[in-house]
Design brief:
There is one protein chain. The protein has 124 residues and is α+β, with helices and mostly antiparallel strands. Helices cover 14% and strands 23% of the residues. Strands 1-5-2-6 form a four-stranded mixed sheet, with no helix packed on it. Strands 3-4 form a two-stranded antiparallel ribbon. The longest helix is centred in the first third of the chain and has 9 residues. The two termini are 23 Å apart.
Length: 124
């Protein structure tokens, strides 16, 4: 009940318009918003959402959770290989609904939330 999947047109290049479309689906009020970037070729652990909720704690600033360890499918060799990628393709940004920008406001490889970054290990 605490997850809302939004399917948006990936052809949007304007991050502000993209973020505004996401924010239209957020309930008004003073609460935290947790957004995670994923697209059609990403996969996550079955307990990904549970782990995000476990590590979530209200903070006055914008901050990020990233799981840097995972696997990648090498299409040439058809092998799953372990990978460590600190700014991977599905970071999660936690922020106040009052000043939300959503995770889509930054390129995944250049997230600069100017706040506390939290990186956790493990294969996901």
């Amino acid at each position: 009940k605490n997850i809302k999947l939004l399917f948006v047109d990936a052809n949007w290049k304007d991050k502000e318009t993209f973020a505004a479309e996401i924010l239209k689906h957020i309930e008004p009020g003073d609460h935290d918003i947790i957004t995670t970037r994923m697209d059609n070729d990403d996969a996550i652990s079955l307990d990904f959402v549970e782990k995000i909720h476990y590590w979530h704690a209200p903070k006055p600033e914008r901050w990020m959770i990233s799981f840097p360890y995972g696997v990648v499918l090498d299409l040439n060799s058809k092998q799953m290989l372990p990978i460590e990628y600190m700014c991977n393709h599905f970071p999660t940004v936690i922020e106040s609904s009052r000043n939300a920008k959503t995770v889509i406001s930054w390129d995944h490889y250049a997230i600069d939330v100017k706040a506390r970054n939290m990186i956790f290990g493990g294969f996901y």
